[in-house]
Every structure is written in structure tokens, then in C-alpha cells.
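Go through this pair.

…
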Amino acid sequence: MFKKKNNSMKNFKSGKYINQGFFKSFEPEKINKQWNIENMELISLLSQADRQLGRLDMYSEYIPNIDLFVSMHIIKEATKSNKIEGTKTNIEEALLDREDVDEEKRNDWQEVQNYISALNIAIERLNKLPFSSRLIKETHNTLLKDVRGKHKLPGEFRTSQNWIGGASINDATFIPPAFNSINEYMGDLENFAHNNEFYFPDLFKIALIHYQFETIHPFLDGNGRVGRLMITLYLVEKGILKKPILYLSDFFERNRTLYYDNLMRAREKNDITQWFKFFLVGIIETTKGGIETFDGILKLQKEVEANIQSLGSRYSNAQIVINHLFQKPIINAQKTKEITYLSLPSVYKLLKEMEELNIIEEITGGKRGKMYIFQDYLRLFR
């Protein structure tokens, strides 16, 4: 339950450093208490963010086959979130099958695929499991499966000290709390997420949850990715978004220095207000970008539909290919054969005609193993 004390943002206390022998760890204040917002600039930003989110969420109801486009949003989020951690896979590479990726890039590619799987599974799990430590651990387990962090306790909170920045703990930028307090902190975070005793706007709630999670840093690896993924899970669970179509990783990646600086400013200077401003600006900018993307998708749908009318008897098969491309805008002859049940000669003829209509573009330049990309659609997500 919330403590009855009045906790204004201007009186925010982030926590304190505790001497652990040869280093000091940061022990944050717990967050499961009543919070009050008095800053009018924050209230104005919250109002703008809520309005933009409402506009974005409308597309979930009014765009036919919205699920076709959700997968591309997830692929973009996966590449951006992993890019913050140093992974170099781009959207085009993320769309390829493993065997089509250069061997030296496969580890990065796999980390992006794990992020896609983790997010998809977590969204599905929300039907049965609330936003919780259990869900977060399950998501983390999927994230680190068979990749670089696989030996760092996937799906388990850490049982040793970690740190952020620096080659060792001695020159670390930030040292999170001791491992034996993590269950208590995460329990407090979970209680705060579901506490309805006092009202606190959900966008402020998830901003504070994200800050606290990154401060606790409960895993040995993958904290940044899980923390960013949690934002979308929370918005979907609370019904703010009907579909997972908002992701802040692109905004955080483009403003990476500010992202880290504002988190540290809250810890070092007790200034949570600046973090809230940054977070809400991220919501506003990202929702505006999402709305533009969906408007672009609707326009492109109409153009492509008009384009394939000229294919006559091949129209229905072209429509099947287009629907596939809206989910995954890269295709080859074999995949086309699988989804249309056409013979290979008919497949090649269909793909050639779609290429002549400038709907798809061949990207290998070879005579064998040709791959085609839906460039106009992909451009909307770059």
C-alpha cells in the first residue's frame, strides 16, 4: 500500500550510497507511495502525451489488418533497442533468415531475433500473467537465450554485484544496489505498478518504473533492453494501447546521451522532474512519428491496391504476396510458392510482374537465390 506521506516531485529523494567495503552501492528509495505532481509544465506535457497516444491508439481500431503492421514496428524496435547496446544489425538484416546473414553478423542478428521473440511472447503472456517480476524474468530468459549473455543467469535476478560504465567496479560510472536487496526492490516496483489506492497518471507511473528498474539493474546483463521493453508491456496491460505500436528505443537511441544523463541527474541531484519531461517528450515525439507512419501505410496500401488491379487473374495471388510483405517486407520465390501454392514458373512470372510495377525490387543482383524487397514500405520505418 502507499504510505500516507505527501510525496511531491520537488521533494523527491533518489536514495543514498552505502559503503560495501571497497566500493559504494546506490540504494534507491522505494517508490510504492503516493506521489503528487505540482509542476504545470509536466501537467501540460502529460496532456499532450495523452492526446497523441489517443490518436495513435485509434489506428488499432480503424486500420484493417492492423496486426500485419505490428510486426514491422516490433522489428524496428528490436534493432533500435539492441543498437543502444552496441548491436549493429539493421532492419534489412533483421528481416533475413539466419542462413542469409553473413557469418560474422549472426550473433548480432540473433540478439535482435531474441528481442522480437521476447516481446511477442511477453505480449501474449499478458493475457494470463500481469505485469510482474515473473513476466519480466520470463522475458529476460528469452532475450538471453543462446546469445552473448547466456551465461549471465537468464531469467534470474543477479546474485552478485554489477556496475555501469568503467572497466571495473573501481572506475564505474554507477553501482546499483547490492544483490541481496533486489527481490525487495522489485516487489516494491511491482506493488507500485498495481497499486490503485491513490491515483497517479499511468505515464508518470511507467516513467518512474523505468527509472527505478534501470537504477536497480536487477540482471547481470540485458537490463537496458528489458527496461525499454517493459514500457510497451505496461501501456498494453493498462489498456492505454490496444496493440503494441509504441516503442521509445528509437527516441532513446537518437538522444542516448540525454537518456543516460537524465537518469543520472535524478540519482545524483534528486531531479526526477527532468527525467519525466524527457520521457513525456519521448512519448509525444514517438506517437507523432507513429501516426505519420500509419498515415503512410494507408496511403501506400491504396497505391499498391490500385497498382495490382492491372494483373487480372494474378490479382488474388498478388494480394497474398502483398499481405505477406506488409508483415515482412522481404520475400523470395520459395516463400512465394509456399503462401500462394503456385508452381515455380508461375511464381517467377508473378514476381517479375510485381517488379515491373515497381512494387518490389530485386536486391541480390544474381540469377539464382533472388530476393525481393518491398522498398516503399520499408522506407516508412527507417
Remarks:
- The mean pLDDT is 92.
- The chain has two domains: 9-293, 313-379.
- Strands lie at 15-19, 24-28, 330-332, 361-362, 371-373.
- The CA atoms of residues 337 and 346 lie 9 Å apart.
